[in-house]
Write a structure and sequence with these properties.
The chain is an alpha/beta fold. The protein is about 35% helix and about 20% strand. The protein has three domains: about 50 residues; about 160 residues, Response regulator (Rossmann fold, 3-Layer(aba) Sandwich); about 100 residues, Response regulator (Rossmann fold), CATH 3.40.50. The protein has ten helices and 15 strands. It has a seven-stranded mixed β-sheet with strand order 2-1-3-4-5-11-15. A four-stranded parallel β-sheet has the order 7-6-8-9, sandwiched between helices.
Length: about 375
C-alpha cells in the first residue's frame, strides 16, 4: 500500500487510544488537504494534552472527608490536623467538611437517613480516599451508613472515648480513642473542696455517660449525694441549678453550641459557673467559661496522632495493618480558684501517658503497648 492510496490519522492521543481510518487518496489535492488537516489535528491535540507531570500530579491528588459530630469541633481540629497530614503526604490534598447537628439529633433515624442521603448525593461520582470521623456521633453515623454512601473507603476515627467504644472494631476502620477523665475530675473537685456534700450532674440523656458518672460517684457513697439534671439547656435548667443547696459542686457534661437563645448556649455555663463551683471532663466546656478545672486529654497530641494514622492510610498502607488504640494522655487542669469563683489561677498538669492497642481482626484484648510509629 502506497502513501498515495491511504492515510493513517491519529485522534484523541490524550485519551489513551488510537483510531485508524483508511481513505482513498488517489487524488493528490485531496491527499494534501487531508495531510494538512491531520497535521493541524495532531498539533491541537498535543497542545491540549496534559503534560506527563500534570498527569502524575493528578494521580497523586487525595481527597479526604472530615465528618464532625458538631460544628464546634471544627475550630480546634482543622488547622493542626490538615498541616500535620500535609507534612507527611506528598501531592495535593483536598479536605471536604460535613457536620452533624450535635447531640440533639443523634437518636433521630429520620434525621440520620436524611443526612446520609445528602452526603450520598453530594459525593456521587467523587472518589474519596479517606473519611475522618470526629466524635462519637460521627463514628456511629459512619458505622451505620458507610456501606451505603462510602462503600470501601477507609475510615480513621478520633475524639471518641475508649470507655464507650472499648472492644469494638470494624473492618476497614481504625483510629484514636482517648480516655475521658471523668473519675479524675470528680476526685479533683472533692480534693479542692473537701466540704462537698452533693454533686449536681448536668447532662443530656446519654445512657452511657450517665451510667459512667454514676459509677464514679458510687465511690463517694455515704459522703456525697448525686443530683441529676437531664435535658436540654435553657432558662428553666438554670433556675433549678441556681436553687441548689450550699456545698454543692456542678459536673457539667451538657454539650453546648454558640449562637443559641439566652441561657441555651455557652452563656448557660458562664452563668452556672458564676454561682456554683463547676467542673467538667471536657475542656471545651471548661476553659474560658469560668469552670474551676477538670482532667483533660492532651488534645493537640491526639490530633497529631490521628493525622499520623491518616497520613499512613493516604500513603497506601492498608488499614488492616493498623491497630486501634487509645491514648490516655491527660493532666489535671486547675484553672480557677475554688474559694473565689472566677479568679484565675495557674494550671497544674500531671501527664500520665498510657497507650493501648487491640487487634481488630482477632478481637484480642487490649495490651499495654504503643502503636508502631506513634509517640
Amino acid at each position: 500500500m502506497t502513501e498515495a492510496s491511504s492515510l493513517l490519522r491519529i485522534v484523541n492521543i490524550s485519551g489513551g487510544f488510537v483510531w485508524h481510518e483508511r481513505r482513498d487518496c488517489s487524488n493528490p489535492r485531496l491527499m494534501v488537504s487531508l495531510r494538512s488537516h491531520a497535521r493541524l489535528a495532531i498539533l491541537v491535540l498535543l497542545l491540549c494534552a496534559p503534560s506527563g507531570s500534570l498527569v502524575a500530579q493528578h494521580r497523586n491528588e487525595k481527597r479526604v472527608l472530615l465528618l464532625f459530630s458538631d460544628y464546634g469541633q471544627r475550630t480546634e481540629f482543622l488547622e493542626l490536623f490538615e498541616s500535620a497530614v500535609r507534612a507527611h503526604v506528598s501531592g495535593n490534598i483536598t479536605f471536604d467538611e460535613a457536620y452533624l447537628e450535635g447531640p440533639h439529633h443523634i437518636e433521630e433515624k429520620s434525621y440520620l437517613d436524611s443526612e446520609a442521603e445528602t452526603l450520598r448525593l453530594r459525593f456521587a461520582g467523587t472518589k474519596l480516599d479517606l473519611i475522618v470521623a470526629a466524635g462519637p456521633a460521627a463514628l456511629r453515623f459512619t458505622v451505620e451508613y458507610r456501606d451505603r454512601i462510602f462503600n470501601g473507603v477507609p475510615v480513621v476515627f478520633t475524639a471518641v472515648s475508649s470507655d464507650e467504644f472499648a472492644g469494638k472494631t470494624w473492618e476497614g476502620m481504625t483510629g484514636v480513642a482517648n480516655h475521658v477523665g471523668l473519675g479524675e475530675t470528680i476526685d479533683l473537685a472533692v480534693r479542692l473542696q473537701p466540704d462537698t456534700t452533693a454533686v449536681a450532674v448536668i447532662s443530656p440523656y446519654d445512657p452511657h455517660w450517665l451510667a459512667a458518672t454514676h459509677n464514679e460517684l458510687v465511690r463517694y457513697r455515704g459522703k456525697i449525694r448525686e443530683i441529676d439534671f437531664i435535658g436540654p439547656p435553657g432558662p428553666e435548667l438554670f433556675e433549678k441549678v441556681a436553687a441548689l443547696p450550699p456545698h454543692t459542686v456542678v459536673l457539667f457534661d451538657l454539650a453546648l453550641n454558640p449562637g443559641q437563645p439566652p441561657l441555651a448556649g455557652f452563656d448557660l455555663l458562664d452563668a452556672v459557673a458564676q454561682r456554683i463551683p463547676t467542673y467538667s471532663a471536657w475542656p471545651n466546656l471548661c476553659l474560658n467559661h469560668g469552670c474551676i478545672g477538670g482532667a483533660f486529654e492532651e488534645k493537640s497530641k491526639l490530633i497529631v496522632q490521628t493525622a499520623d494514622i491518616a497520613a499512613r492510610v493516604l500513603s497506601g498502607e492498608p488499614v488492616t495493618r493498623f491497630l486501634s488504640y487509645a491514648s490516655g494522655v491527660f493532666g489535671l487542669a486547675w484553672i480557677g480558684e475554688p474559694s473565689g469563683i472566677g479568679t484565675s489561677r495557674s494550671r497544674l498538669c500531671h501527664p500520665a501517658p498510657r497507650s493501648y492497642t487491640a487487634n481488630p481482626r482477632s478481637g484480642s484484648k487490649a495490651e499495654n503497648t504503643s502503636l508502631p510509629g506513634s509517640r
